[in-house]
Specification:
The chain has about 130 residues and is mainly α. It is about 40% helix and about 10% strand. The protein has a 3-stranded parallel sheet, sandwiched between helices. The radius of gyration is 15 Å and the shape is globular.
Length: about 130
């Protein structure tokens, strides 16, 4: 990913209480000013109050849908982010848990959930993961 954004594709396979680990270079920075404003409001208000502001209006602000997608994942499970492309303030307003190592986060997630099933989803608009239980 060139800028911070939460893909919607993992929502269909993220188990309740599961962990979504995102590795993103964020080489283009945080994203648009509108996205930054939405994220700042999310962190200031908290997920429930932020969501209430969304449902109270008839039209979403520009790039607000990205923050809404993040909220969907946060309601299902834990969201963690590894990046070296955001400064401390940008990391704070992601509203998710920052991690220092993808390897460590994956190992801790496997141990926490007692399940070694891991999905790795490359960035791309045409990837739609589907979980098919054995």
């Amino acid at each position: 990913m060139d800028r911070l954004r939460l893909p919607a594709a993992p929502l269909d396979i993220l188990a309740p209480g599961g962990t979504l680990i995102i590795a993103s270079q964020c080489s283009e920075g945080f994203g648009s000013e509108e996205f930054r404003a939405a994220q700042t409001r999310l962190v200031a208000l908290g997920p429930e109050r932020f969501l209430a502001t969304l449902t109270a209006k008839s039209l979403a602000d520009i790039d607000e849908w990205q923050t809404e997608m993040q909220l969907k994942a946060m309601r299902i499970g834990r969201v963690q982010l590894y990046t070296q492309g955001l400064d401390a303030e940008e990391q704070r307003i992601t509203g998710v848990e920052m991690i220092g190592s993808v390897d460590t986060a994956v190992a801790e997630s496997i141990a926490r959930h007692g399940d070694a099933a891991v999905a790795i989803i490359p960035e791309g608009p045409y990837v739609v993961p589907i979980h098919a239980p054995p």
